[in-house]
Write a structure and sequence with these properties.
single chain; 494 residues; alpha+beta; two-stranded antiparallel ribbon; 14 helices
Length: 494
């Protein structure tokens, strides 16, 4: 009899049932979509960070940022001697020179810092790396027009390049040259559990080993090797020295790039660049995740001149529409869901209370024929819960449709680093010479496709919210119905 009476009451008040169910459906759909989008943004942020941090890397220690003006002019300086290059019969001089340099915007740190880091309580592993940029000038400069008449110079003798401010490259006229660059990372081959090497796998040849210390051997990123048409067994010029390519590596994640174009032994990188016994970045792995903050504080105290950064610090620097979307969904989306859900529940309560007022005679009559208050309250609450379940079911369908629509549209989010990072002013390591970070922040500035993953937990949460809304509305309605008496029914009939 209970279900028969419940079905009759709901079918007799279709308008109220439709309004209550629709309000809850919209609220539930919003909860599902907002939660799915939030999970998608978190995944996108993790994807952006994954391409910057090596597997297992919790913290990084890098050199302090250079003060304005300390970096000089900020680019590689090519110095050519008077007799450098080869001169053809027509007086054209062919010049080629490679420079291997550290980042001019961020200082390096002494390699002994690695010992300090490993001595900190809570540090499970640490690895140092020296990040460099190899820039190659290659071109032909024609003979200056007045070369035959200046200072008794022979007509076929090419003149040295003028100093900046005395004509520069343009003083020659008609010359052509190219300036190419790629990133180089000096690494300790034994450190594969933390840092850049932990995020790569060998696809061809072999990896660097301890036996390669002091040797002119290199391992190339697979994408760079393809673009430069290089393979295992070939040689590549790094800082004016020919390096034998012994292996090709690729990122262990399909969503991330490697930390550099070329990997060489750390001691070779230090000698060839003239940087000395220094590193750009120390990668740190904490013994456990709950010790990261403690280890970071200890490192900052032990190394006051260095910059200590965690993944959460880097996440704060990932800007563009990624952080904007995350903030929007987390704050506005969540509050919007809460407000709509509250309005839907309030609407359900008001309609239920209004319905009870219109059913005074009916409820009073039921009490007069022997229905207890408990049975009356159960009847009203049951009607509200059924209305809420209908709304929850419709809301889940709408929410799933919204999630499918997001996944089909596949909106993109920019994971470009913050503007100051792009200029080398922030983040762990600066630009160009900051270990894995300089190259990677540039490489990961591409858009990331946003998805809206859906979990069973979100659907269950939506159902629980719907049932809770129905119970709240039913509780108020039942309380109102329980206060009615058979006498009120008799007066209503009269």
């Amino acid at each position: 009899m209970y279900w028969t009476y419940l079905r009759r009451e709901l079918s007799g008040r279709k308008k109220q049932t439709t309004i209550v169910a629709t309000g809850l459906a919209i609220a539930i759909a919003l909860v599902i979509v907002v939660n799915a989008l939030s999970a998608g943004v978190r995944d996108a942020q993790a994807q952006a960070l994954e391409s910057v941090y090596g597997v297992g890397t919790d913290l990084t220690v890098s050199g302090a940022q250079a003060e304005p003006g300390e970096g000089g002019r900020g680019g590689p300086q090519f110095d050519f001697d008077d007799d450098e290059g080869t001169t053809s019969d027509d007086g054209t001089t062919s010049l080629s020179q490679s420079r291997l340099m550290t980042d001019f915007l961020r200082g390096t740190i002494d390699a002994a810092t690695l010992d300090t880091v490993t001595g900190i309580d809570g540090v499970a592993a640490a690895s140092g790396a020296l990040s460099l940029t190899n820039t190659t000038f290659d071109g032909e400069l024609p003979q200056r027009p007045d070369a035959a008449t200046e200072g008794g110079a022979d007509a076929g003798q090419a003149q040295p390049m003028p100093e900046d401010g005395e004509g520069g490259m343009g003083g020659f006229g008609g010359g052509s040259f190219t300036v190419d660059s790629f990133t180089v990372l000096g690494v300790e081959a034994a450190d594969t559990a933390v840092g850049p090497l932990s995020a790569v796998e060998v696809t061809e040849g072999r990896a660097l080993t301890d036996a390669d210390a002091g040797a002119d051997v290199a391992v190339l990123d697979a994408s760079y090797a393809t673009s430069a048409d290089l393979a295992v067994g070939d040689t590549t010029d790094v800082g004016g020295t020919a390096f034998e390519i012994v292996g090709i590596v690729a990122s262990t994640s399909s969503e991330a790039d490697t930390a550099a174009n070329v990997y060489i032994p750390l001691d070779v990188a230090q000698d060839l660049s003239g940087a000395g016994d220094v590193v750009s970045t120390v990668y740190v792995q904490a013994a456990s995740s709950d010790q990261i903050a403690t280890v970071q504080a200890a490192l900052e105290e032990a190394l006051p001149e260095a910059t200590v950064s965690s993944q959460s610090d880097l996440a704060a620097d990932v800007s563009g529409s990624l952080s904007s979307a995350s903030s929007l969904i987390t704050s506005l989306g969540t509050w919007l869901s809460v407000i709509v859900l509250a309005v839907a529940v309030a609407l359900a309560i008001l309609l239920t209370m209004s319905g009870i007022s219109r059913r005074t005679r009916e409820i009073g009559t039921l009490k007069a024929i022997g229905w207890s208050n408990r049975r009356v309250v159960g009847q009203v609450a049951g009607e509200s819960v059924v209305q809420a379940l209908i709304g929850g079911a419709v809301g889940i369908v709408l929410g799933l449709a919204g999630v499918v629509a997001v996944n089909l549209i596949s909106p993109t989010i920019s994971s470009a680093p913050a503007a100051e990072d792009a200029l080398g002013q922030g983040g762990p390591g600066g630009m160009g010479g900051m270990g894995a970070f300089g190259a990677q922040l540039g490489q990961t500035s591409a858009d990331i496709v946003l998805s809206a993953p859906l979990s069973v937990g979100i659907i269950l949460l939506a159902l629980l919210l719907a049932v809770a809304g129905g119970l709240v509305a039913g509780a108020f309605g039942g309380w109102r119905a329980a206060r009615l008496s058979p006498a009120e029914a008799l007066r209503a009939v009269a």
